[in-house]
Amino acid sequence: MSVSIKLSRFGAKNNAFYRIVAVPTRSKRDGKSLEIIGSYDPHQKKTVIDKKKFDKWVANGAIVTGGVKKILK
Fold first, then answer.
1. Could you list the residue range(s) of the whole structural domain that residue 21 is in?
2. Do the strands 35-41 and 15-24 form a parallel or antiparallel pair, or are they unpaired?
3. Which residues contact 32 (CB under 8 A, 6 or more apart)?
């Protein structure tokens, strides 16, 4: 099973925030996640991430998507 680290959308219309999650690669954007790694609020430009969980998934071969790479810069 291939795993990706993606953004999953939550919140209300015009007031979205995103969770950074580890999910199976073929799952939908807001599908069931394996683990919540962090969150991102685009309105406040605030990113919270658990570095240990992120590093664990990347070490196990998880693919980091473009959106997550962009906000982690």
1. 3-59
2. antiparallel
3. 23
Q: How confident is the model at residue 38 (pLDDT cuts 50, 70, 90)?
A: very high
Residue 13, in any domain of the structure: yes
Residue 31 within any structural domain of the chain: yes
CA gap 13, 56 in Å, rounded: 33
DSSP H/E element including 59: helix 51-59
- Distance CA(50)–CA(48), nearest Å, equals 7
Residue 70 in any domain: the answer is: no
Token pair, residue 52, equals: 């240990």
Distances (CA, A) of 52 to 29, 36, 45: 23, 12, 22
Q: Looking at the whole model, is its pTM more than 0.85?
A: yes
